[in-house]
Design goal:
Layout lengths: L21 E9 L2 E12 L2 E8 L4 E5 L1 E6 L2 E6 L4 E8 L4 E8 L2 E9 L39 E3 L20 H7 L4 E6 L15 H16 L3 E6 L3 H5 L1 H18 L7 E4 L10 H16 L7 E3 L6 H6 L8 E7 L3 H4 L19 H21 L4 E5 L9 H16 L5 E3 L9 E2 L2 E2 L3 H4 L6
Parallel strand pairs: 10-11, 10-17, 11-12, 12-13, 13-14, 14-15, 15-16, 16-17
Antiparallel strand pairs: 1-2, 1-9, 2-3, 3-4, 5-6, 6-7, 7-8, 8-9, 18-19
Helix pairs in contact: 4-5
């Protein structure tokens, strides 16, 4: 994963660009030709992430790295094209003025605010496979594990899982859950970065103010008659060193379980989002067992969701579930990746812009995944939850493409009785913006029949 951070350390003459979010454009001279460049910056935490495009060369979404803003100076690398940009802010021109250095050659480049028309050749009208249509069936009922009536579900993304609430997008508003319930949703998944708000030494205490905030948010959701999947998210240290972090993981869940011991039965726990790196399938059992024991001390029958390595579907098929009658499996689905992550700044290499969704190959891939889930349920008696799916909300991708994706994927898994939880609400693959839902997405999302 490549990303960059721009610390917002503004010199006096840079006051006009205190918020560097948005689009920046410029032109470099390449021999007897001029090539347009466009950088796209988005705030994350106290800095920014972004990509750069070269539309005249058909290159889009190239990730940027090693970005430094020091007063009026700005620099960043574009590793995939062996290039670097070094510039200073010129208040008279309202531009960053500097040099684009590529393969040892330095070329003048000024970046000003703006965006180029989308005149590059992208075909969003590729034929859609006529068989790419699914009808929701009745919700599947488990022979093993809890019977969870998830219904229509959305992730409250980039809110409590951000370093601080509001750093990655809008903070929670007290009317969010009423809005969601009114739109026809039955459940919300609330990712929470508990590890970012807890001590790193025993007894690993969670900040009481933060824990109270989480309780307030969950209480609001419950008051709106929504089921809540309370998910431990972004525990990166756990992935890097599971043995060292295991005691802290158990202690965090002990505290969370105690805090929600009196919560209604519609509040469910999810142990860990997308285990990865050193936390492979064969190590998860030893991690999950003591955490479940800590939860069961105060919540003996509360449903707990568990996921395999990366919450990957194939990994779920091979994952040995904990010996607990109230646990349910979960998986995530972001296929085809070249469609769902085009325009995203973090993958390396970045998927090229222009991949449409709905081909015969897309249908075959989705049919195979649905069949795997159906066979898993028949074999194990367990009914999984599709905890995340979605497509990047890059403005260059027509909304109709995203509407099709959310509708097709949710209805495909609903056709075997499996509920899905869309990523995400108002930030990160967002389906709502400002005071309105993005047209067509909520209506497209389907759930199994009751």
């Amino acid at each position: 994963m490549l990303a960059f951070t721009i610390a917002l350390l503004l010199a006096p003459d840079a006051a006009a660009i205190a918020d560097a979010r948005g689009d920046w454009v410029g032109v470099v001279a390449a021999g007897d030709k001029s090539l347009r460049l466009s950088a796209h910056l988005e705030r994350r935490g106290q800095g920014l992430i972004g990509v750069i495009d070269s539309p005249d060369q058909g290159a889009f979404g190239l990730p940027l790295a090693n970005i430094v803003q020091d007063g009026a100076k700005l620099s960043f690398d574009a590793p995939s094209v062996n290039a670097r940009y070094e510039a200073h802010w010129d208040s008279a021109r309202s531009a960053y003025v500097g040099r684009w250095i590529q393969n040892g050659q330095a070329i003048d480049l000024a970046l000003t605010r703006g965006g180029y028309p989308h005149d590059f050749d992208l075909d969003w009208n590729a034929p859609v496979d006529p068989g790419l249509a699914y009808q929701p069936a009745k919700r599947a009922r488990p022979r093993v594990g809890p019977d969870l009536n998830v219904g229509k579900c959305v992730n409250m993304s980039n809110m409590l899982d951000a370093p601080t609430e509001g750093a990655w997008g809008p903070a929670f508003a007290d009317d969010d859950f009423t809005i969601i319930k009114t739109a026809g949703f039955s459940s919300v998944r609330i990712p929470v970065a508990f590890s970012a708000h807890a001590d790193t030494t025993p007894p690993y205490a969670i900040d009481p103010t933060f824990l109270a905030r989480v309780r307030h948010v969950v209480t609001l959701a419950s008051a709106a008659k929504l089921n809540v999947l309370l998910d431990m998210h972004h525990y990166d240290a756990m992935m890097r060193d599971p043995d060292a972090e295991a005691p802290r993981f158990v202690a965090l869940w002990r505290q969370v379980a105690q805090a929600f011991a009196d919560a209604p039965p519609s509040v469910w726990f999810e142990l860990l989002n997308e285990p990865n790196d050193k936390l492979t399938n064969d190590r998860l059992g030893a991690l999950y067992a003591p955490a479940l024991a800590a939860i069961r001390a105060t919540n003996p029958k509360r449903p707990v969701i568990v996921g395999p390595e990366w919450n990957n579907l194939d990994k779920m098929l091979a994952f040995e579930m904990p010996d607990d009658p109230y646990v349910a499996p979960s998986f995530h689905y972001y296929d085809p990746f070249l469609f769902t992550h085009q325009g995203a700044p973090w993958p390396n290499p970045a998927p090229p812009m222009g991949r449409s969704f709905g081909s015969a190959a897309d249908r075959s891939e989705l049919d195979r995944s649905v069949a795997k889930v159906r066979d898993y349920m028949a074999r194990t008696g367990r009914v999984p939850i599709l905890g995340e799916y979605g497509a990047q909300d890059d403005p260059r991708v027509p909304l109709a493409q995203r509407v099709r994706y959310y509708g097709v994927v949710s209805s495909a898994f609903a056709s075997v009785g499996v509920a899905s939880c869309a990523w995400g609400y108002r930030s990160g693959f967002r389906i709502r913006e400002g005071d309105h839902w993005l047209p067509g997405i909520v209506e497209a999302i389907r759930a199994p029949k009751p």
